[in-house]
Amino acid sequence: MDVALTGATGFLGLRLVRELLGRHRSLTVFAHAGSDSALGRITRFLELTDTPPELIAELPKRLRVVETDLGQPRMGLSAADFERLADELDVVWHSAGNINLDDDLAQLRRVNVEGTRNVLELAAAGCRRPIVNHIGTAFVGGARREGVVYEDELDDSHGFENGYERSKYEAEVLVHEWSAAHGRPVLVLRPSILVTDLPAHPELPEHPLRFIDQILRASLSTVGLAEALVPERERPVMRLPGRPHGHLNLMPVEHAARVMVQLADVKASGRVDTYHVVHDHDVQTTTITALMELLVPVRVELVEKRLLDPSPLEAMADLYPGFTPYLSHRRRFDDTRVRTVLGPELSGIRVDLDYLLAGVRSKQTTESSPRWP
Ligand SMILES: NC(=O)c1ccc[n+]([C@@H]2O[C@H](COP(=O)([O-])OP(=O)(O)OC[C@H]3O[C@@H](n4cnc5c(N)ncnc54)[C@H](OP(=O)(O)O)[C@@H]3O)[C@@H](O)[C@H]2O)c1
Fold first, then answer.
1. pTM
2. What distance in Å separates the CA atoms of residue 293 and residue 373, rounded to the nearest whole number?
């Protein structure tokens, strides 16, 4: 079976590569043209995560790297290469994406929507009618902050918290239209926020929550607070709009990749089959604020409404407005379909403050850890 993967160098994609290499002899990687060597980055990831050296030595033979730009028609390939590749494939995993919540909508659409369109065209052109496994996000649920989001729901009636959510929603709509027009099955896998406790490393993709550390650190230094010198009782208060009884779903990325390849083995209905790839327990918003307080010397207070009188520190800390609304979320993602087909298998991984701190904190914080609890 010939399997291809987009986004193989990403936070999730690297874990999918590892899972897929465990099941398939070879893998075609649609790498991002112009980025650093995909083979080099995949090799480094596997080296840093205790992969047997025999597997690493085989990588150049088992991985075929094809340079692409998904935002371009035919993924930036010549017509001949596009047709030839399409005809060689049985399965296309589409994990590439732009996950910067606040990027310009046109930029987000270029990769997330047009990129998906171009991957679907590749699948439509293939004489073997390759199966498409599309990585979506549970956050196509949009700006609905309460209640339960079900796996078969896809509507924009609640609006979206940021451009990223909107672009991923539009990509899923495309997937449904394509499936109906071509009579082809598509597997849509919707993870929640992906996390790991693997410590940050300059040669690994950035942890999706790392921005918390970066923004807080930058904000403190901009307002002239040298973090290491602030004693506990003098920590500045930082008010953030959010709800202390809110909760978010954070899914260990390694487990998510494992669940995804298992779901790909389930018999398809022939249409779009959508699954929420989520953790069995949500994390309280107060765990996120406690994480902030461990990363930098501030005291975080969640307040009901957006601040009208932000302090200089609070104004600086609001540099990532796409994320702040999630501190007010209290919805749950239903994953009945996953449990029905895979059984009630749980990850056994507890996503708590220690887990999050291990993956999010920077080397700088680690070095100064004796100063923080
Ligand atoms: N991370 C999360 O918390 C999360 C949660 C829910 C859903 N998801 C979804 O999961 C998927 C993977 O996310 P991730 O966390 O792995 O993201 P990531 O770490 O930012 O990786 C993005 C991947 O896409 C590739 N890429 C970006 N633009 C491209 C282009 N124009 N042409 C070809 N390749 C391109 C990147 O290649 P380079 O590195 O070479 O640029 C990289 O391999 C995305 O579809 C995302 O929406 C992620």
1. 0.95
2. 10
CA of 112 to the centre of ligand 1 (A): 9
Neighbours of 215 (CB within 10 A): 18
Tokens 């929550």 locate to 209
Q: By C-alpha distance, which of 209, 23, 55, 132 is closest to 42?
A: 55
CATH superfamily of this structure's domain 3-194+249-277: NAD(P)-binding Rossmann-like Domain (3.40.50.720)
The pLDDT of residue 227 is above 60? no
Give the max Cα distance, the chain.
Answer: 68
Q: How far apart are CA 133 and CA 15, in angstroms?
A: 15
Percent of the chain with pLDDT over 90: 80
Q: Give residue ranges with CB within 6 A of ligand 1.
A: 6-13, 32, 35, 68-71, 95-99, 111, 115, 135, 137, 168, 191, 193-194, 205, 208
Instruction: List the residue whose alpha carbon is closest to atom 24 of ligand 1.
Output: 96
Quick one: pLDDT band at residue 367, thresholds 50, 70, 90?
A: very low
The domain ranges of the chain are 3-194+249-277, 205-248+282-330+348-371
SS3 44: helix
Residue 370 has pLDDT above 70, yes or no: no
